[in-house]
Amino acid sequence: MSNHYRWLLAIIVLVAATFYIVLPNNNPPQFLRRGGDPDALRECELIVPPQDCSEYEGTFDYQLGLDLVGGLRVLMQAELPPDAFNADDLAETANNVERRINALGTTEVTVQTLGNDRILVELPGETNPERAIKTIQQTALLEFVDFSDVVGVDFSGQRILTTQQAAIQAQRRALAAENGEVLEESPLDQGAVNPVTGQPFQTIMTGDGLDAAAAIYTQGEGWVIQFDIAGDHEILDPNYSSFGEYTAANIGNPMAIVLDGVVLSAPTIRARLDTGGTISGNFTEEEAKTLALQLRSGSLSIPLRVESTEIVGATLGDESVSASIRAGIVGVIVVLTFMLVYYRVPGIAADLALLVFVLLNLALFKLVPITLTLPAITGFLISIGTAVDGNILIFERLKEEMRAGSNLNDALDAGFDRAWTSIRDSNISTIIVCGILFFFGQTPGASIVSGFAITLALGLILNLFTAVLVTRTFLYVMVDLAKNSIEKRPWLLGV
Questions:
Q1: Residue 428: CA count within 13 A, CB half-sphere
Q2: Domain topology for 142-298
Q3: Per CATH, which fold does 2-25+317-493 belong to?
Q4: What is the pLDDT of residues 203-243, one digit of tens each?
Q5: CA–CA separation, 302 vs 348, rounded Å?
């Protein structure tokens, strides 16, 4: 029996850890950053003097879906012809959109591609739709542009045409022409050219050459963007091999910082810049932080336009959610009571194992994390029923062995060993069905099925652990402590 006591100790430690995680408003520091922007947080913590970095931290709590808390749903369409990009380009754009939204602090964002030219974004609990849409839609094409020909000319706030923008537009027109389409005029086409050469301004480097970016507040210039240059950055001016070489050759000349064709600022180069620098432009705090997160998440390879937006109210009100929670609690209590009354001592072991099962599920809902929608909660409640089913199979087999004249230890061994096959096969077959549901839940309009499949499958996997190992440990320990009393009173086993 010593092995069972060792397992009991391990289960107690596991329960203590999961209970700590499940506690409300519990934010272990090692998990706090998961939902925020780790790169920005790390950079913020290095700034001297110390800054308030709480905005970059994530949360460690249950994540609720649109049907429980409401939020924002945005449908976007690519501005390029479908033949101008492939599925990988659309998937990359969707990933960049997701990184941008996550950096805003919105948790459990759903971003999925629809068809071959649309992206659907769902933001549970989003309270600032305008900021979210602007952050999603802006392409964030940042350019460092040579302004050595226009010393003393103020282009701040004006739209200019650069060599990089011209190349992008030429590529789009060529692709559109191949498809027999005419590309609509873009704002990029309306920018001013270099008045000296009559050609587009020369782009030196784009934002893709940055390794990190963070918004910081300085006493002299207010909010600026502090950036690091990647070691393998690409230089677009053929006359130079690196950003450091360009800045060294142009000390005393202005270099424009251009975002989506608009000049943010044109600071004078004061020294060679090999590893990084700052971007100034009279930013407000929100503008600086938004630009920094866009630079960290990358520019959108496909420009997007908003096709539709929808403010989604919670399908279930607070009273309905509270009523559902109460109903779930009452249901669990009824099940616990039934197991205790009908199976007595084994029922106590089953009840304890069921509580461990619930705690493990709730802890994993936080750790994974899993979005709790109404279908997801339904899957969890059904998994509780399957956990009880496994215990019933074991206990009924135990009673059969006792009635057949087996001694207590042999009956326990036979009950668990012979019921295991049925428990394993039934759970695995249902897990396979969950996999099929999850697969079909990835199609447009069917994502609601995924939450149900995930929570049910998770519960079934945990049930293989709790219904056998945990219940077995509890029951063997109780029998060991009160073996004589149980053998004299078979009714304690429900016999």
A1: 6
A2: Gyrase A; domain 2 (3.30.1360)
A3: Multidrug efflux transporter AcrB transmembrane fold (1.20.1640)
A4: 999 888 887 788 888 888 888 888 888 887 889 999 999 99
A5: 59
